[in-house]
Give the backbone structure.
Amino acid sequence: MDLTLNSQFLDNWIEPLEGEYQPLLDFEEAIQNQSPFHNLDSLTSEIKRGFLDYVRQGIMLHTIRRYRLYKDKFKDFKSYCEQGLGRQHFYCKQIIKAASVCLRLIKSGFKILPNCVAQALPLVKFATVDQYGESPLESKWREVVEVVPQEKISAVTIAEIIDENPEPRLQQVRIKKDTYAILAKKAAAAGLSFVEFLDRIADEYNPPEDDEPTEHTPEQLEILDQLDAEFEKVAAGAIGKTDKPVANIASDKLSTCYQKAINLPGRSDDVSDSS
């Protein structure tokens, strides 16, 4: 490797200590050297103030955009964000919106506030002021602080509480790669999405408590055994071929058996080609 080129690369990408990050190093040294004499309350206040640094950033970004302070060096605000700050234009606009929300809550007298951009953003849609000069922002935030302990407030809990049209939220789980592959292939064999397949498994292992077991006739039991055998064939054939869900593989193979099962008198589990 050319040491000269490597040195030039480092000079371009690593700021000297006296650059823009030097104040952080000075602060570290000051804190470490003076910590025995520092007061806990003063440090706690500084930490809490730091939680709201995004509000200061939003105020400054808004000022730069409003008064076009970037115009002598950059084509527009977007260029300033990307080239001057090294941040996406969209994210900078989000900071401005989040700061505006927090400032309104401060002026409304709230002591507990969103302490980051992610916590403030779910509130943005409630900050619009109507023709009467009112908005639901304050009432929505009051719901949050009255229900959730301050230390447990997060972007997720805020969104769940203030969402006016809540939908079932997906939860993330960690499973082994090979287990996921097996389940995905079985879902494909059944003509189901991965989530639908898991829902079906959950239903099978958690039947309604008030449902009585279905009693089948010998003929019905024979057909159910045939269905199980056919399903195993299709599932076995799908393993190793593809991870992509293949619509209606199982229903195509089993349609004749399902039709027989549907026509049996007393059939109570409502199986059909479309299931």
